[in-house]
Here is the input.
Amino acid sequence: MKEYDARHNVRRSLISAAVLIACWYLMEIIHECGHVLGAHGQVDGVSIPLVGISSTSYSSGNPAIPALASGPLFGALVPLVLLLLPRSTWWGRYAWFFCGFCLIANGVYLAAGVTMSAGDTADLIARGVPIAALVATGTILTIAGFTVWHYNGRWAGLA
Here is the structure.
């Protein structure tokens, strides 16, 4: 029986790691799509490296606030559409998990980003966006993500 439990735990761990990696890259793609849409065609390129953080380079070199803010906000709010999917299916539960993941990742990025000297948050601060607004928005998104996870887990019998 213990051999079965060990194999089951290894399998579960590998599936969990694969889901988290897929969530990370899909979240980065959606985040960068937000930057591209917010820049209205003023984009030179998008980089989504295998290891590291994704980035968008702007042709003007000095992106406007909407272009910068649209990445985290688009990346957090677009996955909310997934909450329309039923949780009664395995893919619905994964969709709800992904929605919470995106809310948390983009929320923490905004809230904790005020301590970094690079990234969207640093650029927004440099253009006059109040730190309190970034921290408040990031905190709200993070709480919303954990709330989605909580209700998804309760429904699935995990909480």
